Amino acid sequence: MNRPNASTRISAYTALVVVAIISLVPLVWVLLQSLRTSNATSLDPFAFEWPPVVRNYATAWNQAHFSQYLLNSAVVAVGTIALVLAVAFPAAYALTVLKLRLSSPVFYTFLLGLMIPVWSVVIPLFFQLRNMGLINTRLGAVLVETALGIPFAIFLLRASLRDLPYELIEAARIDGAGDLRTLWSIVRPLLSPALQAVVILQFMTSWNELVVPLFFLQTDDVRTLPIGLTFFQGRFTTDTSVLAAGTTLAALPVLIIYVILNRQFIQGLTAGATK
Amino acid sequence: MSASTSLERPTVLAPPGTAPDRRRHRDGRAGVLGYWLVLPAATIYAVFTLWPIVQTAYLSFTDWNGLSPAKSFVAFDNYRELAGDRRFFSALLHNLEWVAGSWLAQGFGLLLAALLSASWIRARTFFRTVFFVPATMSLVVVGIAWNQIYRPDTGVLAATLEAAGLPSAGWLSDQHTAMPAVIATANWTYYGFAMVILLGGLQSIDRSLYEAAAVDGAGAVRQFVHITLPGIRNQITLLVVLSFINTLKTFDLVYIMTNGGPGRATEVVAYYIYSLAFVTHQVGYGAAAAVVLTLIILAITIVFLRLRERSER
């Protein structure tokens, strides 16, 4: 398994570069398309254009309420992340460390949520949220997405809690720390990689979520970015350049966060996979 | 909401004389606190997941259009109708094509992971980061981007094929190519994800095992079969289970790219449920289809987890 010969290495790198191109070209092509006029694109889908047309971005931004959608997406994602952390962490701690008598059945009931498709909750939830006055409110979407996120968060946190050195918790108790104190001052810092993983994965799920906002956020003032973009697609099917600009605008926030935090993204996923 | 109330029940005290387990927390005050810690999560989960499922199960026994106040109870009629519903089975078949497609992407992900885990590869982090980019994108963005790529007039794929002298199909408007085109888009977002999961497993395998095997004269293939595959068994099981769970639930790309068409060539179960409950207002029937979908996912997951438990013994 040491250094193989040159031709093996060259073909390996060639393969990797080709896959890298496949991974990026669709996005790059949309980006390039957004910097041209629709007419030019229909004449020749490949060509570049200089100077680039920036007007498409202004049209997309102004006509599509992008700032409102961005704000809504951010509010729903941040709200969901905060609520998931606030409820799933104590629950996972209690179910794993405190060894309650009902730990096991309660944990498996939560785990069931990993297998439940949103389709088996969405129909009655629609009527339920309407009765609760939560339809077309960002709070309603936050609560539903939190409920859908809790199972995985508890699953992930439990795996890390089980690896925690129990002696530390015992020592804190002997020193007179209460359970809540132990939870906050001892367990929380020790668990911070797993908590970070929950934050990242929940951000990705919530930011990209389509079904929940499709049903529960149906007015323009509360729509999130993905759902706004679907309406945008309907309105600009013929104006491909503006559509491409809108698509690029919608892709950028998550791409920027991914480039900054890609190590945490990957660690979060692998932590979920190995435990 | 019955689930949350049952959680409030205080713990039963351990019978006197039982030796306190070091790992089991003392019952009483702390036990009650434990349930208080679980309560918020349990309440949200019960109100917004468990209770709606019970409701869906109930609705599946009714004939309801979602509007009229009266729901007529029809017992198993919806399920009986579903058993003879060709459209449902055709949608399910499309889901299974999707599952098979995702296995191709997983195999591809395994190849990439194996390549990237070779000790002499440089820029590993760079390639891993790039391959995972499509997986971070919202499926709405992905679907719209690929819609543009597949377009016959301005799409880059048609233009490429034309330049190569090949016929440029309207990929998404042709009955025969629409499903493969959508699945290809799904797999574009998936191989990087599979690779990241498998790479995590590969990197946790003890290198000295390979050295020992090489000393014993085992070749690359035997090393792969006897060291690599067992070493990433957990990740493989996870990916296989996830591919079933997620592809059976799949909806976003179909909704964005084809609306189930042309004809019903790309209709999947989730899309069928959506159009039953929210387009044609057959809420009871849609609920029955949702219940069946859930049961299929549960059954497949349980079978896989059992098989995995057995293989670990």
Automatic annotation (TrEMBL), chain A:
Residue ranges of every copy of the ABC transmembrane type-1 domain listed in the record: 70-261
Keywords: Cell membrane, Membrane, Transmembrane, Transmembrane helix, Transport
Cellular compartments annotated: Cell membrane
Gene Ontology BP annotations: transmembrane transport
InterPro entries: MetI-like, MetI-like_sf
Annotated membrane topology: Multi-pass membrane protein
Main location: membrane
GO cellular component: plasma membrane
One Pfam family this sequence matches: BPD_transp_1
TM ranges: 12-32, 69-95, 107-127, 139-161, 242-261
Top-level taxon of origin: Bacteria
Keyword NAD: no
Family of the protein in this entry: Belongs to the binding-protein-dependent transport system permease family.
Protein name: Carbohydrate ABC transporter membrane protein 2 (CUT1 family)
Automatic annotation (TrEMBL), chain B:
Protein keywords: Cell membrane, Membrane, Transmembrane, Transmembrane helix, Transport
Any GO CC annotation of this UniProt entry: plasma membrane
Domain of life of the source: Bacteria
Localization, UniProt: Cell membrane
TM spans (from-to): 32-54, 98-118, 125-146, 181-202, 236-257, 283-305
Domain ABC transmembrane type-1: 91-304
Pfam families per the UniProt record, alphabetical: BPD_transp_1
Entry's Gene Ontology BP terms: transmembrane transport
Topology of the protein relative to the lipid bilayer: Multi-pass membrane protein
Chain segments carrying region Disordered: 1-25
InterPro entries in the cross-refs: ABC_transporter_permease, MetI-like, MetI-like_sf
Homology family: Belongs to the binding-protein-dependent transport system permease family.
Protein known as: Carbohydrate ABC transporter membrane protein 1 (CUT1 family)
Lineage: Bacteria, Bacillati, Actinomycetota, Actinomycetes, Propionibacteriales
